Amino acid sequence: MISSHFVIGIIVGTHGIEGRLRVRPLTDEPDRFLKLTKVLLKGISDSFCEYEVTEAKLHRRQILIRLNGIDSIDKAQELINRELCVARSEALALDKDSWYIADLIGCRVYDIARGYLGTVKDILQQPHHDVYIVEDKQKKDLLFPALKSILISIDPYSERIDVELPAGLYEIYRESER
């Protein structure tokens, strides 16, 4: 499903008494926070509120960020656990044959030999390659590596991924059900 925004971090705490926020980055490029001029905060009802970024800096493995209008620890504490997002137009450019994970979640997955396998439930980012988690109609998971030898085509606009699973992989998951 093509997303209109992307989650780039989660507010995990406050820093000091002047409203600074500690953010755990959920992006491959934490330096991107240093260039942000505005962010969207996801609300409880999935609505968004836009804030101007007045300060951002890297601090250990987190980001310290100040938002216009958040000028006290009390206001900052109200934002803990909220998702920090950017609009699609603000997203980092991708390499050819790369996709945003958010756009692949919910895509239908078809194997050339078995047909419909299920929908992408999540994608695990591993050092050498991503691993797709596909949930079938019975709510059972099938995992496979995101390798060019397996992925035939990916079209997030039609929400479809075609694969050719290696011999035995599908059977391993179905054997464990017995």
Features of this protein?
six-stranded mixed β-sheet; 12 strands; Elongation Factor Tu (Ef-tu), domain 3; 2 domains; 44% strand; SH3 type barrels; six-stranded antiparallel β-barrel; single chain; 3 helices; mainly beta; 178 residues
Describe the protein in words.
- The chain has 178 residues and is mainly beta.
- Strands 1-2-5-4-3-6 form a 6-stranded antiparallel beta barrel.
- The protein folds into 2 domains: 5-89, RimM (Elongation Factor Tu (Ef-tu), domain 3, Beta Barrel), CATH 2.40.30; 101-175, PRC-barrel domain (SH3 type barrels, Roll), CATH 2.30.30.
- Helices cover 9% and strands 44% of the residues.
Strand content: 35-45%
What count of structural domains? Answer: 2
Q: Give the overall silhouette.
A: elongated
The gyration radius over C-alpha positions equals 20 Å
- Tell me the series of helices and strands, N- to C-terminal: EEEEEHEHEEEEEEH
- Quick one: how many beta strands? 12
- What separation lies between the terminal Cα atoms? 33 Å
**Largest sheet, spatial ordering of strands:** 1-2-5-4-3-6
Q: What would the average pLDDT be, to the nearest integer? A: 90
Q: Stretches where pLDDT falls below 50 for ≥5 residues? A: none
CATH class of the largest domain: Mainly Beta
Give the helix proportion (percent range).
under 10%
Q: Per CATH, what is the topology of the largest domain?
A: Elongation Factor Tu (Ef-tu), domain 3
At CATH level 2, the architecture of the largest domain is: Beta Barrel
**Quick one: biggest sheet?**
6 strands, antiparallel, barrel
Number of helices: 3
Structural class assignment: mainly beta
Query: For the record, what is the CATH homologous superfamily label of the largest domain?
Result: RimM
